[in-house]
Specification:
By secondary structure, this protein is an alpha+beta fold. It is built from 17 helices and twelve strands.
Length: 474
């Protein structure tokens, strides 16, 4: 399938709209930085009879930092606790009003396997407030959010805090399996002789550590390698990927300077200064970016450190309620969380195409089209992944041959797409990004006068998620 996909899609005719929007102009040009505000529209609400309205009261995140920087000496629950405290400070919600806490994470710290519970206790929540942790690769906090939606919709809870955390600065490194087995057996040995006999069997290769790898268990392929193959299959050039990455950094820098990243809360790092902003936003130049060597497929690959999301530390938190409860407590919600879908595909050939499969499904559930969406917030794992998804979404051939659909859903227009930057520039703590996408969509809807936002993301395992966000009536 890989070879067929590569050779067939490479020769796909791009629509004129796509050609104008992506390939015939620089994505980093000034026109992209001056995207006009969406005009206020009068559209139907997505409320459904007999279904509770779930609202976002507030969403925050501590600054997303490159791994190995200011958060390097902390633990994941420290970051999650800081996000929870930031949410409490901003909303003044009484801790005992929160019925449940759910957090997403990917690479778990073994000492705090249920990081949601440890963070909640650290943030001062009652020990009577249940908390659990979910994992679904890069859509872990998306899963946390929708788990919260389910709890509220089912009538089990009125108030849920959902979030996510990742600390890539300090990931668990295991002894080899041989050494682990020996040590466990040694722990059960009863006599000195038995212990010495076991110790005598240890060989030098037992000490080789097992490092965690950002790779697919089923294919043993790294996500970067998959991104390189996907870019090649869809004929996405190195220049186009660099242009898109530069656009992300430039737009993020502009949003940061204009104070648009309203979800960021300061974090006083123990023993260090207070961190107030993301530190991975670094607009460069196409000339400088072109000098970097391929990071995964060498020497001819097109995915580099400059057009990939970087290893990031960070945490996020969102306050979800039933609309009735929020109003009773005196809150003015930011947005409704509406229809959502999860999808999964072949983890070998279509690892990063989750948004392509999820977008038409969630639109159909809501009775909307791409033209109805005012704000798009997609997770940027790699520039090539974003551009490949856009090309797939704009292809009737792909829709008919791979998705079982009669026609394409269409690609998001760039003037509505990730206009405050994305994961390439803001950073991507695996477990925390989904909440950032959702609250950014809500903030952009209010700023730009739109009503509907669409959040989408790919994830390891060939999975994906999409969700509709509707602005709360102003």
């Amino acid at each position: 399938m890989t070879s067929m996909l590569t050779h067939t899609i490479r020769n796909l005719p791009a629509s004129s709209a796509w050609a104008v929007r992506v390939f015939a102009r620089s994505l980093s040009c000034s026109s992209q930085l001056q995207a006009p505000a969406v005009q206020p529209k009068s559209k139907k609400t997505l409320a459904k009879s007999g279904v509770k309205n779930i609202v976002v009261v507030e969403g925050v995140r501590i600054p997303f930092l490159q791994s190995g920087t200011s958060y390097a000496d902390l633990m994941p629950h420290d970051l999650a606790r800081a996000a929870l405290q930031g949410l409490l400070n901003r909303t003044s919600v009484p801790r005992d009003v929160v019925d449940y806490i759910v957090y997403g994470t990917v690479i778990q710290e073994v000492k705090t396997s249920n990081v949601a519970r440890e963070a909640a206790l650290g943030a001062g929540f009652s020990d009577k407030t249940p908390a659990h942790t979910v994992t679904m690769a890069c859509i872990s906090s998306n899963q946390a959010m929708t788990t919260g939606i389910g709890l509220i919709a089912a009538g089990q809870c009125d108030v849920v805090v959902a979030g996510g955390v990742e600390l890539m600065s300090d990931v668990p490194i295991r002894h080899s399996r041989k050494m682990r087995k020996t040590m466990l057996t040694l722990n059960r040995a009863k006599t000195v002789g038995q212990k010495l006999a076991l110790i005598s069997k240890i060989r030098p290769d037992y000490f080789a550590p097992e490092l965690p790898a950002v790779a697919e268990f089923s294919t043993s392929e790294t996500m970067g390698h998959s991104a390189d193959r996907l870019a090649a299959a869809f004929a996405i050039s190195r220049v186009e990927q660099d242009e898109y990455a530069l656009r992300s950094h430039t737009l993020a820098k502009k949003a940061q300077e204009e104070g648009l990243l309203l979800d960021v809360v300061p974090f006083k790092v123990p023993g260090k200064d207070t961190v107030t902003k993301d530190n991975g936003i670094r607009p460069s130049s196409l000339e400088q970016m072109s000098k970097l060597k391929p990071a995964f497929v060498k020497p001819y690959g097109t995915v580099t450190a400059a057009n990939s999301s970087f290893l990031t530390d960070g945490a996020s938190a969102m306050l979800l309620m039933s609309e009735e409860k929020a109003l009773a407590l005196g809150y003015k919600p930011k947005a409704y969380l509406r229809d959502f879908v999860y999808v999964s595909q072949d983890p070998k050939d279509q690892l990063l195409l989750g948004p392509t499969y999820a977008t038409p499904k969630v639109l159909e559930k809501a009775g909307l089209t791409m033209a109805d969406i005012d704000v798009f917030e997609f997770h940027e794992a790699f520039a090539g992944q974003i551009l490949a998804n856009m090309k797939a979404m704009d292809s009737d051939w792909f829709a008919q041959n791979y998705m079982g659909r009669k026609s394409k859903v269409g690609a998001p227009p760039l003037e509505k797409f990730n206009t405050w930057g994305g994961s390439l520039s803001l950073g991507h703590p695996f477990g925390a990004t989904g909440c950032r996408l959702a609250i950014t969509a809500a903030h952009r809807l209010k700023k730009e006068g739109g009503q509907y936002g669409l959040v989408a993301a790919c994830a390891a395992g060939g999975q994906g998620h999409a969700m509709l966000v509707e602005l709360y009536p102003q």
